Amino acid sequence: MKPRSDVPFFIVMVGLSSCFVGLIVLLILADVSFTSIHHFRQAISKPEILASIRLTLLTCTVSAISSIWVATPLAYLLSRFRFPGRVIVDLIVDVPLVLPPLVLGLSLLILFHLPVGDWTLESWLRDTTGVAVTHHWPAIVLAQFCVACAFAVRMMRGTFAQIDRRAEDVARTLGCNHGQAFFYVALPQAGPGMIAATTIAWARSLGEFGPILVFAGATRMKTEVLSTSVYLEMSVGELGSAVAVSLLMVGIAIAVLVGMRLIGNGITKDTLQ
């Protein structure tokens, strides 16, 4: 039987794929054409925006690191072990992915101010540790973490699912316990996946808006991050500055993605060698 031409197949595949890629490119080009260097310089020269950039970099980094610390053991347990309630735990982990952002922020606000006897979680933390959460920068990190960690768990679970568990079984037959097999066998192989999960967690934290607005607020020079800066600039009619800040976020996200992928490729090459 004579093989048919692959041209129609590639026309359909490339055509469908280019629709999404082209849409993203057009969105970025639209932002670039709308603003100007003057708007960009004006935006990043504002003390509020500079403070927003610093707070964004700090909170995204803290939430991404926290996410990978929690996501790695949780994903390993879900991918390697069968335990009572595993299906329920797996379902709960996915809740932040489908929950409306404003609902997540409202839930955090209720949690920290829900009266339990004569105290609330917010007042207890303030009295015992001196740390205020609501409408302060820890609220930003917590709001980012709730969503970013869910993405990191999904990424890490896929990573561990692709790692052949026979090497861990062999390690245990040679005298290793589960902890040693995890740290010396599974974890080194999961390096590229951890880089990818950290990247996704950081990028997702960068774009978080709804929960931050509800739980932390958007007070300038205090709880303002880049995502809320766009909202605040638009609310005062500074559309050019808002678009400039949006492009700044796009640039930061691209830089982080490129940097993390280079690191991940380096780790992959070292692992293969």
Give a structural overview:
It is globular and about 65 Å long. The longest helix is centred in the N-terminal third of the chain and has 34 residues, at 47-80. It contains 13 helices and no strands. It has 273 residues and is an all-alpha fold.
Summarize the structure.
It is built from 13 helices and no strands. The chain has helices at residues 7-34, 37-44, 47-80, 86-98, 101-113, 121-129, 137-162, 166-173, 178-189, 191-206, 210-215, 226-235, 239-272. α8 packs antiparallel against α9.
Describe the SSE topology.
Blueprint lengths: L6 H28 L2 H8 L2 H34 L5 H13 L2 H13 L7 H9 L7 H26 L3 H8 L4 H12 L1 H16 L3 H6 L10 H10 L3 H34 L1
Subcellular location: Cell membrane
Membrane topology: Multi-pass membrane protein
Subunit structure: The complex is composed of two ATP-binding proteins (CysA), two transmembrane proteins (CysT and CysW) and a solute-binding protein (CysP).
Please name the defining characteristics of this protein:
273 residues; globular
